[in-house]
Amino acid sequence: MSVDLRDKIAIVGAGCTRFAENFDLSYGDMLAEACFEAFEEVGIGPEDIDGAWLSTAFVDGSAMKGRSGMDLAEPVALFDIPITRVSNFCASGGNAFREACLGLLSGVNDVVLAAGVEKQRDRPPQKSLVKMMVVAQHQFLQKGETPAGQFAVYATRHMAKYGTKLEHFCMVSHKNHKHGIGNPIAQYRQEIPMETILNSPMVAYPINLLCSCPTTDGAAAVVLVRAEDAKNFNKDYVLVKAQELIVNTGWDLPFFDPRYEFSHFPSTRLAARRAYRVAGIKDPVNEIDLAEVHDCFAPVELIVYEDLGFCKEGQGKYFIEEGRSTAEGDLPVNISGGLESCGHPVGASGIRMICEITRHLQGKAGERQVKNAKLGLAHNIGGPCAITSLTILGAP
Asked: Which 3 state secondary structure label does DSSP give 140?
């Protein structure tokens, strides 16, 4: 069931490392950088935090860090408080954020921290996430069930059902790389010609290399308090309007369910429907000013346009064709450059997206600032395309 968080919880501080091949920074170094940036914005220290949640999706991919809350305690000097480690695939960051909100709503906590981090670049390709999952899951089924392969099923079905073309997916990548130029923390900050994207090597048809996000290191963090206390910490606070977390299937499903359509993400549709109801949103495309959505692979963003109600079912191709999701469009999507430009340190991405929305609502997003931003949405989808975290934030 939905929890009514509307205008009850506030973000008072946010921090984020550069998302990159951070070979010179350890897991703990990145956590400290992100968390202390958030503390500095609020004007507090670690001793003021009375509860924390740590998001790391893949312990074995993060230099064996992230097994428990202890891996947040030491680098950030958070001692003698409850710290919970959260893991829920690509929705891990949003999940940690949700738990932090609930801690405040319950009255147990007064000042909390939600932090996400992933250290993925300190491993050779032979020990990649794909290799780890082959070993940990079914040795035959998992070999063909790579992340790109999973999402490719949705992309090809969308093409067959609605006439979407490879070019439409490449337009998403082109847009996001162009947006990434203005983001100082993005791993890739350069525009890539459409022809180059179209002709890049195929990974899992129709997903090619430049329609795929890079493997990245990074950390992000937010400090939250109850809304009635926010002004005591930061006059530029941002309010939580809604937060939904949906898990709607197991690992083998939906891929063996003959009733499943594969042209949309049911968890995202349900999360959006519930979040809009709590936030009082009736016309998302006209009420939401910007969105950060999951674009681990470009087709995902296009399908999510439809699932979030930004356009009608099957019309995602026109939404990107007409430039409606560009910086100049009526609903900028992934103005940060998205996962395509920023990269995807899995445990950190959800909180990085929340930080991005926060900066726009504060009017502090620099050259990529969305004008008059009052309402923003952050979305992640993970696991076997079945887990969705969706957060809606608003200016006071």
From this structure: coil
